[in-house]
């Protein structure tokens, strides 16, 4: 439909149930709707409705279903409208911009079955009247600014089926503990020390005292009511006599809940299907009674401070599909009983203290796994060959462990990582949590599915180049293999290249040797390839041009040799000329690429001969340039020889380039000026600076400043350890966004130009070990962002400028004269390093 909500609706006096969801409405709600007094259902979901909710809606006294989900309504929720809505059963106002507290008048809606106020900006505490809504089965208050403790009366909701309080600021004990609901509670969450607070014993205002941290024994032992606090933080408490036999979904993640998980939670919530308390401050052990929740499909306890072993009773959860226990302090080994969880699709045990070998039964008994994350533990031994039975495996992360041995031949059967055999999603998974939905509300069927998040909507973190990439809704296969930071040795198997649907491959920081597989180009879906910090040798395979989706290539810190491939090779465009030794590989690459096309916009595909020395021609469409999506390139610390290929200028998406510590020579190609995106931040977590050029190579001649002047947004330039000669970069001040300039260990001469002070964003300036002359320009004092100035062994002959405000100053090995100016230290409050030795300074030390 689109447009405004027609005011003429007021004329439809008999109107009972208008369904106006997803109609593109983009106006405010007309107050005239109050005249439709026969309304029982009003649905305005997923529009662009703005403005406030009319208080005049209080006149709609017969309404039973009211839903304005996912709009742009603002202001506070009117207090008066709920007073005259005694028959209301469903109130859905999520995903708007409502502010203020939750109105206490909602407590009068005694027939309310469903309440959704999620995704707003509501604040304050959760009102205790919630416990009076005895018919409430669905409560969703996610993503607000609600604070303080949960009211004890919330646990009176014996009919509750869906309870979700994600992403608020709730605190206090996770679930009701040893104290009864009618008792007053003093919650202590600090690290107190000193004398016994006598008033706690004398004051009967707080019959029970609870602490989520350990109180010192000198306090607890002297107070009868504080004695249980000394071990409360690590012990397990029991819930009260309450039973939540209808509760199926409990989501309390991303809050500040503390304390331990009650040890009898399995008896209190026996029918739970989804239990998520991740990203809180929960301590203690995982209780054995969780194994009694035989219907549990999703268990998410990540991002807490849980310790101890993984309970063997989790093996009783035969319906478990998602188990996320990551980012805790769990220890011991993976229990053998987990092999009974044959329906498990995701197992995330990363960032714990688990040890011993990775069990071989993971592949043989739990064949349904799609995601296996075991990174950042203390696993040792070999990678189990049983992983080869995980036909549906999409993400395999074993990084940051102590694994040893060679990479086993396990990849031929990992069909989810092979494009031609990737399995289709099974929509039956959507039914795994569908249980009894209220008959009168068909929307609850959708909500219960959404609330249960089957596997393909699960979020997963993938690490590439030091940055974490989070995939929040995996609706199509996201594939990754990460064996980095272990002790693996041997060669990279050619079999690995069969994984042509792999998104990320990270084998860095191991002891791998041999050559990069020649058939690496078969991995045509690869976007991130990191083989750095190994002992790989040989040349870069000339077949890499077909890897047209590659965004990140890191081959640094190896023993690779030969020239950096150029025209007709890795960094160049496909040559396509008859007789080239690369034609066979190029033809094969084009054919592979053609078969991977989804929409082939081809008028013809022509072969000019019947043998492999021919070449392919595109009509109306052509293959993208080789590595045309590459944005990160690190070939540093190898043994490459020859010159810097001019074809680097074809990598127009490049943000980072490093060629340092090789045996390259010659001049810097002017095509480097084509890299206009070198200035746009793309990898902010890789290092401190976002955009880099690293050219630490044996380059002769003068510095071609005209190249860098075209890169007006360049932030980092490192040209150290070269053989540059001549004056020092006249015109470099045009790089007005430069933050880090390093020109050390060259043969630059002349003086430091005063104009360099025009680079107002400069934070680091290093020009050590160049035969310079003249003074240190006083104009450097205008570089207010400057943190580090290194001019060691440069032959400078001035006094120390007092105007500098700096953290690191290194000017030793010069001919600096005069006294150390005392006032300069008042300008250097953040100084952490000062090198003044081997100069001609005189006078007292200030």
What do these coordinates show?
- The chain is mostly beta strands and 846 residues long.
- Helices cover 5% and strands 24% of the residues.
- It contains seven helices and 56 strands.
- The protein has a 26-stranded parallel sheet, covered by helices on one side.
- The model is unreliable at 178-196, 198-234, 421-458, 471-476, 567-586, 598-624 and 679-698 (pLDDT under 50).
Task: For the structure shown, list the relevant keywords.
846 residues
**Can you count the helices?**
7
Count of individual beta strands: 56
Work out the strand percent: 15-25%
Low-confidence stretches: 178-196, 198-234, 421-458, 471-476, 567-586, 598-624, 679-698
Mean pLDDT: 77
Q: Report the principal-axis shape.
A: globular
Q: Assign a percent range to the helix content.
A: under 10%
Structural class computed from helices and strand pairing: mainly beta
Our measurement of the CA-to-CA distance between the termini, rounded to an integer number of angstroms, reads 79 Å
User: What is the alpha-carbon Rg in Å?
Assistant: 33 Å
Summarize the main sheet: 26 strands, parallel
Brief overview:
With 846 residues, the protein is mainly beta. 5% of the residues lie in helices and 24% in strands.
List the helices and strands and how they pair.
Elements: E1 41-43, E2 50-51, E3 65-67, E4 72-76, E5 90-92, E6 97-100, E7 114-116, E8 121-125, E9 138-140, E10 145-148, E11 162-164, E12 169-173, E13 185-188, H1 198-202, E14 208-211, H2 217-220, E15 249-251, E16 256-260, H3 265-268, E17 274-276, E18 281-284, E19 298-300, E20 305-308, E21 322-324, E22 329-332, E23 346-348, E24 353-357, H4 361-365, E25 371-373, E26 378-381, E27 395-397, E28 402-406, H5 443-452, E29 460-464, E30 467-471, E31 480-482, E32 487-491, E33 504-506, E34 511-514, E35 528-530, E36 535-538, E37 552-554, E38 559-563, H6 583-595, E39 604-607, E40 616-619, E41 632-634, E42 639-642, E43 656-658, E44 663-666, E45 692-694, E46 698-699, H7 705-709, E47 716-718, E48 725-727, E49 740-742, E50 747-749, E51 764-766, E52 788-790, E53 808-810, E54 817-819, E55 833-835, E56 840-842
Parallel strand pairs: 1-3, 2-4, 3-5, 4-6, 5-7, 6-8, 7-9, 8-10, 9-11, 10-12, 11-15, 12-16, 13-14, 15-17, 16-18, 17-19, 18-20, 19-21, 20-22, 21-23, 22-24, 23-25, 24-26, 25-27, 26-28, 27-31, 28-32, 31-33, 32-34, 33-35, 34-36, 35-37, 36-38, 37-41, 38-42, 41-43, 42-44, 43-45, 44-46, 45-47, ...
Antiparallel strand pairs: 29-30, 39-40
């Amino acid at each position: 439909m689109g447009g405004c909500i027609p005011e003429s609706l007021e004329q439809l006096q008999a109107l009972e149930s208008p369904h106006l969801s997803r109609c593109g409405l983009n106006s405010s709600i007309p107050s005239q709707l109050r005249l439709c007094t026969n309304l029982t259902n009003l649905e305005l979901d997923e529009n662009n409705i703005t403005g406030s909710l009319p208080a005049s809606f209080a006149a709609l006294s017969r309404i039973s279903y009211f839903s304005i989900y996912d709009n742009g309504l603002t202001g506070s929720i009117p207090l008066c409208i709920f007073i005259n809505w005694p028959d209301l059963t469903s109130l859905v106002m999520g995903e708007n911009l409502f502010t203020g507290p939750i109105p206490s008048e909602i407590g009068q809606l005694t027939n309310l079955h469903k309440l959704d106020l999620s995704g707003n900006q509501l604040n304050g505490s959760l009102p205790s009247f919630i416990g009076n809504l005895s018919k409430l089965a669905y409560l969703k208050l996610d993503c607000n600014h609600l604070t303080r403790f949960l009211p004890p009366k919330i646990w009176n909701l014996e009919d509750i089926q869906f309870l979700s309080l994600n992403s608020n600021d709730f605190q206090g004990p996770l679930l009701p503990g040893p104290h009864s609901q009618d008792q007053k509670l003093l919650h202590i969450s600090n690290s107190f020390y000193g004398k016994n607070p006598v008033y706690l014993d004398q004051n009967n205002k707080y019959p029970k005292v609870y602490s989520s941290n350990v109180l010192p024994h000198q306090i607890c032992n002297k107070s009868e009511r504080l004695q249980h606090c000394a071990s409360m933080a690590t012990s397990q408490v029991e819930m009260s006599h309450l039973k939540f036999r209808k509760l199926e979904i409990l989501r309390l993640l991303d809050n500040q809940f503390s304390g331990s998980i009650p040890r009898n939670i399995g008896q209190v919530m026996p029918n739970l299907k989804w239990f998520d308390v991740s990203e809180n401050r929960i301590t203690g052990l995982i209780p054995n009674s969780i194994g009694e929740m035989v219907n549990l499909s999703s268990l998410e306890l990540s991002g807490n401070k849980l310790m101890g072993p993984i309970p063997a009773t989790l093996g009783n959860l035969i319906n478990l599909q998602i188990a996320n226990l990551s980012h805790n302090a769990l220890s011991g080994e993976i229990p053998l009983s987990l092999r009974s969880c044959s329906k498990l699709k995701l197992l995330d045990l990363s960032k714990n203290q688990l040890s011993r070998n990775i069990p071989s039964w993971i592949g043989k008994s739990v064949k349904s796994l799609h995601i296996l994350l075991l990174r950042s533990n203390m696993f040792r031994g070999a990678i189990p060959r049983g992983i080869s039975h995980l036909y549906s495996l999409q993400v395999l992360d074993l990084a940051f462990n102590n694994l040893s041995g060679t990479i086993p031949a396990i990849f031929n059967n990992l069909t989810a990582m092979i494009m031609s055999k990737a399995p289709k999603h099974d929509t039956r998974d959507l039914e795994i949590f569908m249980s009894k939905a209220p008959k009168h509300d068909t929307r609850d069927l959708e909500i219960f599915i959404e609330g249960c998040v089957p596997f393909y909507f699960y979020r997963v973190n993938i690490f590439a180049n030091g940055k974490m990439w989070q995939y929040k809704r995996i609706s199509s296969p996201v594939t990754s293999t990460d064996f980095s930071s272990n002790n693996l040795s041997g060669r990279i198997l050619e079999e690995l290249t069969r994984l042509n649907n792999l998104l990320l491959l990270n084998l860095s920081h191991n002891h791998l040797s041999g050559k990069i597989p020649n058939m690496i180009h078969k991995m045509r879906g690869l976007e991130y390839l990191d083989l750095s910090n190994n002992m790989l040798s040989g040349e870069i395979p000339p077949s890499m041009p077909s890897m047209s989706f590659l965004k990140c290539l890191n081959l640094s810190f190896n023993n690779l040799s030969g020239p950096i491939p150029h025209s007709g090779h890795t960094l160049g465009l496909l040559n396509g000329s008859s007789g080239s030794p690369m034609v066979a590989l190029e033809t094969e690459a084009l054919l592979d690429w053609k078969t991977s096309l989804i929409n082939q916009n081809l008028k013809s595909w022509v072969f000019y001969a019947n043998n492999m020395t021919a070449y392919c021609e595109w009509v109306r469409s052509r293959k993208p340039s080789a590595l045309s999506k590459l944005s990160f390139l690190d070939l540093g610390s190898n043994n490459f020889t020859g010159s810097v290929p001019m074809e680097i200028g074809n990598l127009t998406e490049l943000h980072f380039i490093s060629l340092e510590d090789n045996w390259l020579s010659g001049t810097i190609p002017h095509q480097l000026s084509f890299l206009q995106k070198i200035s746009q931040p793309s990898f902010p977590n890789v290092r401190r600076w976002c955009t880099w050029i690293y050219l630490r190579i044996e380059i002769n001649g003068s510095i071609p400043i005209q190249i860098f002047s075209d890169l007006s947004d360049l932030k980092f330039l490192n040209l150290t350890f070269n053989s540059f000669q001549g004056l020092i970069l006249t015109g470099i001040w045009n790089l007005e966004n430069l933050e880090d300039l390093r020109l050390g260990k060259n043969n630059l001469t002349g003086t430091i130009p005063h104009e360099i002070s025009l680079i107002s964003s400069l934070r680091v300036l290093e020009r050590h070990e160049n035969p310079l002359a003249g003074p240190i320009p006083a104009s450097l004092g205008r570089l207010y962002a400057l943190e580090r100035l290194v001019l060691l062994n440069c032959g400078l002959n001035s006094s120390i400028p007092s105007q500098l405000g700096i953290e690191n100053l290194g000017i030793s090995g010069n001919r600096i004269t005069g006294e150390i100016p005392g006032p300069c230290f008042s300008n250097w409050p953040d100084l952490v390093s000062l090198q003044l030795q081997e100069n001609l300074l005189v006078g007292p030390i200030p």
